[in-house]
Amino acid sequence: MGIVNATPDSFSDGAELQTLGANSFKIDIDKALSRAEAMVADGATFIDVGGESTRPGAARVTEQEELDRVIPIIEAIRLRLDVCISADTSSPRVMEAAINSGAELINDVRALLTPGAMEAVKASKAAVCLMHMQGTPSSMQENASQTSYGSVVEEVYDFLRERVEHCSSQGIERSRLLIDPGFGFGKTVRHNYLLLKRLAYFSELEIPILIGVSRKSMIGEVTGRVVDQRLAGSVAATTLALASGAMIIRTHDVAATMDAIRVNSAYSSA
Ligand code: 9MG
Questions:
Q1: 39 compared with 9, residue with greater pLDDT
Q2: pLDDT tier at 66 (50, 70, 90 boundaries)?
Q3: What is the average per-residue pLDDT within 198-212?
């Protein structure tokens, strides 16, 4: 899953798709489309388009801003590329508009907990990724060192199991669900590595696992590398996740991630 961030402030690739607007962030649709095209050429089967930064400390944007950033990109990708489009959003209005514009997956870091989100997905045929997060993006890493979990693995697992059960009781079939432990979302580096080490445990839910470790601080903290030098560390973590059953890898670096997927496939089928 290649990432196209239509935000001025994402931690890794923010502002790269910006064009000159009068005092405000304006997205360059051609740049976004070229980015998506290159990722598909490198092997991506999903493109995740997001208009709200979820990096630690990020402020929320209005629904209208999110719509203005995301929908033109989804429409352009739908017209030009044969790829599954994922909309990275927690807003019911953006979910509906994204689905109407061709998104087949909703990637919700708030696991459909926003009022109206469950109904928006239920009324469609779209799949949804339910992610675990403790706190909110604006505050989640402020107190991460004091963030307490009895057992991070059990708590994240119980949360995801409850969300899966709730969605299926509300009429969103299990076959439409993905789960994600939410690396970096209200977790210390140690929590993240405990989750990575025990990722196979989440397979017990019998729902495909999506993960996102690309260029995150859990890679930077142990390698001492700045954001744009975290490729090798991200691929190493990806390889461990694949070996533990991860099915979809959300990444900024599709070509290198595809190599890890191919090596893991050859290893698994040897
Ligand atoms: C939007 N976003 C940022 N990081 C993410 C992650 O790890 N998983 C998912 N599903 N979405 C993410």
A1: 39
A2: very high
A3: 98
Q: How far is the CA of 109 from the centre of ligand 1 (A)?
A: 6
Whole-number pLDDT of residue 58: 78
Q: Does residue 216 have an active-site annotation?
A: yes
C-alpha–C-alpha distance, residues 246 and 238, integer Å: 9
Beta strands 26-27; 18-19: pairing state: antiparallel
Residue tagged active-site, from 187, 216, 225, 230: 216
Residue 163 known to be catalytic: no
pTM of the model: 0.93
Question: What is the rounded CA–CA span in Å between residue 117 and residue 223?
Answer: 38
CA 115 vs CA 93, 110, 165, 183: distances in Å = 11, 11, 18, 24
Ligand 1 binding pocket (C-beta < 6 A) is 50, 54, 88, 107, 109, 129, 131, 180, 182-183, 210, 212, 250
List the domain range (segments joined by +) for residue 238.
2-269
Ranges of beta strands (E only) in 15-169 are 18-19, 26-27, 46-50, 84-88, 105-108, 127-131
User: How many folded domains does the chain comprise?
Assistant: 1
Per the listing, tokens 């590595």 go with 193
Name 130's Cβ contacts closer than 8 Å, sequence gap at least 6: 108, 111, 112, 160, 163, 164, 167, 177, 178, 179, 180
Q: What is the CATH number of the domain that holds 87?
A: 3.20.20.20
Q: Are 183 and 194 in contact (CB under 8 A)?
A: no
Are 94 and 63 in contact by the 8 Å Cβ rule? The answer is: yes
